[in-house]
């Protein structure tokens, strides 16, 4: 029981770290974007127009457009839970809890399938 | 400028409530975005999805640190919610949603009744049931420290297959109907699997981020997420969720339940009526 507890503590530590990094990185980018938006008085794009491809986003960031910076921050925010699942696989493997390695791999695969289906359906 | 401040403030409130109750906060955000700001429902849903992820990540940091959530339960049940969400998204436009709205709405109303019973029943929320063989096999039983009662609470998880099935349904509901990312999760853990309310809420917080991430990428690349709306909202929520996840631990489970019950009742009623074609 104590072993299992120590294992969970270790895994929780790793996952907590990745979440904290993800939140701090995305929040920082979002604050910069929001600051730019207030300085420029707009997103740098039309009212319902904003970049949705990586090329457009990075071009926009190069031009210091608030909308593009914010979109990058939002993408980092979306990516954080996915990274959390990836890191969990590693953490469970390190603790040799193979049942949960497989369960977490299954979650990741399903997640990726969902994203692919989403792209096709859009 | 005014709009940014309004969105930041709404975000903070939604984040606090979302973190405490383990829900995405769409129930608070959608009316504000559509009615107060006049946003198209498509963009309101896009903003709600971002909010779910922000609530989840913001709240989970504290819940992990304080050992409030049940990581194994989350990982195991995520299989059910993610598969359900995909199937739900695929069934959009194929299956008539009226029947499903009534079905899931009825479940929420039943859960409302159940929660009221629990509120009126024993003061202690924890209970030792019969040991579930699945819970044993999957190491699901857990423990948490209740800061409000200053006591370590050990709990056993019951009816794992039924909970798994309900989570599958919850996934379908959120994929197909676009609502209830957290409400169904909390009620499934609390009502069916007999987990205490606090770990149920904390675990739901962790899970809903993953379920939402899959659909969020679709919304992101299809242009349904407005940067000028989502940025202040997400920042407000991150702050709110951080605060809320700390408040929750000092709240008596009874009070969390008291806040939860009206929301549950309202959502259940709304869904059943929607199933019959009535909008409220």
UniProtKB/TrEMBL annotation, chain A:
Output this protein's name.
Answer: Integral membrane protein
TM annotation in the entry: 21-42, 99-120
> Per UniProt, which keywords does this protein have?
Membrane, Transmembrane, Transmembrane helix
Domain of life, per UniProt, equals Bacteria
UniProtKB/TrEMBL annotation, chain B:
Which membrane topology describes this protein?
Multi-pass membrane protein
Q: Supply the alphabetized keyword list.
A: Cell membrane, Membrane, Transmembrane, Transmembrane helix, Transport
Classify the source by domain of life.
Answer: Bacteria
Choose one Gene Ontology CC annotation of this protein and give it.
plasma membrane
Q: Name one Pfam family in it.
A: TauE
The membrane spanning regions, by residue number, are 7-37, 43-64, 76-109, 164-184, 229-248, 255-273
Annotated signal sequence range: none
Which compartments does it reside in?
Cell membrane
Which family does the record assign?
A: Belongs to the 4-toluene sulfonate uptake permease (TSUP) (TC 2.A.102) family.
PANTHER family given for it? MEMBRANE TRANSPORTER PROTEIN YDHB-RELATED, TRANSMEMBRANE PROTEIN YFCA
Descriptive protein name: Probable membrane transporter protein
